[in-house]
LytTR family transcriptional regulator
Amino acid sequence: MMNVGLEKKDVYEDFDPHDTYFFKIGAHGLVCFHGRNYSIKQRLSAEQTSKLVTDPSFYRISTNCYVNLPKIAEIRDNVVLFRDEVHGIKTIQVPRRNLEQIKRLLPVSGHRRTAGMDQVG
């Protein structure tokens, strides 16, 4: 009898910033990546950080925080939601002034919805 196990990806060994939902840049090149069920801190060089923040997949929502646009599942009021079928929903607050730009940058697809975007608050 042959046992076939499911291959699990080790996010720490095979880390890819494009798999994360958002990241925050700290002092001295320390970057904290937030994903489905993890937060990984890595020290990056100035060149690596520059390459990351200029990547079109990421959009700056505050001075030191960037969201991964392809990973956004929904926007409700001032909250961006990231969905994962196994781990559920992870959210992050987004300043209102950035919501319209994020909405324009999101790929158009049937599962992406924005709720409360047209409300004036």
Observations:
- Residues 79 and 93 are 5 Å apart (CA to CA).
- The radius of gyration is 16 Å.
- Confidence is low (pLDDT under 50) at residues 110-114, 116-121.
- Residues 96-105 form the longest helix (10 residues).
